[in-house]
Design a protein that fits this description.
The structure is a single chain. This protein is an alpha+beta fold and 468 residues long. It folds into 2 domains: 20-354, no CATH class; 357-463, Immunoglobulins (Immunoglobulin-like, Sandwich), CATH 2.60.40.10. Helix content is 41%, strand content 19%. It has 16 helices and 16 strands. The chain has helices at 8-11, 33-51, 84-105, 108-112, 115-131, 134-142, 147-173, 178-186, 192-212, 214-220, 223-226, 242-245, 270-273, 294-305, 318-321, 331-352; strands at 56-57, 60-61, 63-66, 71-74, 77-79, 237-240, 313-316, 357-363, 370-371, 377-387, 393-400, 406-408, 413-416, 421-430, 439-448, 455-463. The strands form 5 sheets. Strands 8, 9, 10, 12 and 14 form a 5-stranded antiparallel β-sheet that branches. A hairpin with a 5-residue loop joins strand 9 (370-371) and strand 10 (377-387). The protein is elongated, with a radius of gyration of 33 Å.
């Protein structure tokens, strides 16, 4: 029995690529409301980044993280490693803010304030200025290498390199006084660590904003993967109105699309051309969308030219697209908002009432207590005092909590230099008659002689014999 011959499709070899080769994305330039907001975000954020290190405040750089001295200057405040609590609280607030705004309106952070988005926007401006618009860039990249192409590409990369280098220089300027850093740079006297971090941060900026671009958002950023866990049907997201737009197709201006059996989408693909991650928003919500709203701006312009209502692509919710009511204020938004307001208030209150003074009380654990020749009960303590003020102070120490307490120390007053940790041994005595129980709480008061408001109170335990 003769078997049927296999078809060409069955016999031909087929190659399946699991990883598609990266295709460069050429975002089309767009104008509009959201494009203006992005430009404003870039100008404000980068303006602060590049200008803040040059501000001086009370004789020192306004914002300076002096790691060798373990001092962190933020305008009029000076923080020390012992103030790690504030950093932890700030990170919690940042995380809650991210959750709050994502639940409310999607990826606002990614589209307008993420460093990757902000620096990529500047690199795109430089590229469009040197190479031209989207079509000219595509044509240039497909053309053979000529002297003109080399000149254009070299000019672009030179500007990228200078901008990235200044970015790295500014970054290091937050850790080394930027005026000193500039003098060292201008005299070719930079230290090895400053040189390394300027080049490293500059190279990272050049690579991420110039080459990787959307790949950082799609493959490297974890936020793209778990953002959907914070979305619900009332979250404002950028969406394509499929009911209004489909079926899509080209047509002449002035023609009623319903007579042709078409929706409002003219299938111009401009929404795809302006997308910095190269997605088609008409395919629904995708994790690659960074919420920049460029597709909204360009689609509204097309709708305006066609005399159609704007909003075919818009900020909306899943419930609104289905004709259901939308609830902006819902339990998770309220909870996030209340937590954010509480922690932010706590941070500012704590910083406003912060005392630049620390005292740790370490009781001698080798001996519970001892009796003096006068019949008094005595406990020994080691006090570790940290003066976190900008100038040295002389402090007076006292103790209370039990009637008749006596403080014994080598010197009547304590001199503490700025930023130093000093250890002071002290002994506390009391008449056993005044001890009501074997373990009592006592309070150590430390107060600056020249500044009565600079004071702190810490508690300790005083141990004595069992009362009869």
């Amino acid at each position: 029995m003769n078997r049927p011959a296999k078809s060409d499709a069955a016999t031909s070899e087929e190659t399946i690529e699991f990883y598609a080769k990266h295709q460069k994305i050429y975002p089309r330039k767009v104008t509009g409301l959201f494009a203006s907001l992005r430009i404003l975000g870039v100008v404000v954020l980068l303006g602060l980044y590049y200008l803040v290190p040059w501000f001086q405040y009370e004789g020192h750089q306004a914002v300076l993280f002096d790691l060798p001295a373990r001092k962190f200057y933020i305008f009029g405040l000076v923080f020390w490693p012992q103030d790690f609590f504030y950093l932890a609280l700030l990170l919690i607030i940042a995380a809650l803010a991210l959750f709050f705004f994502t639940t409310l309106a999607g990826r606002l952070w990614c589209g307008y304030a993420c460093p990757q988005t902000v620096w990529t926007e500047v690199f795109l401006w430089i590229e469009q200025w040197i190479e031209g618009d989207r079509n000219k860039q595509i044509k240039l990249d497909k053309s053979p290498w000529t002297a003109r192409k080399i000149r254009i590409k070299a000019t672009k990369h030179l500007l990228w390199f200078l901008f990235a280098g200044w970015t790295g220089f500014t970054f290091v300027g937050y850790f080394t006084p930027i005026t000193t850093l500039w003098q060292e740079l201008s005299t070719f006297a930079l230290g090895p660590w400053e040189t390394f971090w300027i080049l490293f941060y500059g190279f990272a900026t050049w690579g991420n904003a110039g080459f990787l671009r959307e790949q950082v958002c799609i493959y490297m950023c974890p936020y793209a993967r778990f953002q959907s866990a914070m979305f619900d049907r009332d979250t404002l997201i950028i969406s394509y109105d499929e009911k209004r737009g489909e079926p899509r197709g080209p047509r002449r201006k002035g023609v009623n699309p319903r007579e042709l059996g078409l929706g409002d989408c003219v299938d111009c693909t401009l929404c795809v051309q302006v997308c910095p991650t190269g997605i088609d928003i008409r395919n629904g919500l995708q994790y690659q969308c960074i919420g920049c709203a460029a597709c909204i701006d360009i689609c509204d312009q097309v709708m305006e030219k066609m005399n159609y209502p704007k909003g075919l692509i818009r900020y909306t919710t899943e419930n609104a697209l289905e004709g259901k009511p939308t609830h902006i204020l819902r339990p998770r938004v309220i909870i996030y908002g209340l937590l954010l307001a509480f922690l932010t208030s706590l941070l500012f209150y704590s910083m406003a009432t912060r005392t630049p003074l620390r005292m740790d009380i370490i009781r001698d654990r080798n001996v519970l207590y001892q009796e003096t020749t006068e019949g008094l009960v005595e406990n020994t303590y080691m006090l570790k005092i940290i003066n976190m003020d900008e100038k040295p102070h002389v402090y007076h120490l006292s103790v209370d909590g039990i009637e008749g307490l006596q403080l014994v120390m080598r010197e009547a007053e304590i001199t503490a230099p700025s930023g130093k940790v000093i250890t002071i041994p002290v002994r506390v005595r009391v008449d056993p008659v005044n001890l009501k129980k074997p373990s009592s709480e006592i309070r150590f008061h430390l107060q600056a002689v020249d500044d009565p408001e600079l004071s702190i109170v810490e508690t300790g335990r005083f141990l004595g014999p069992m009362s009869h």
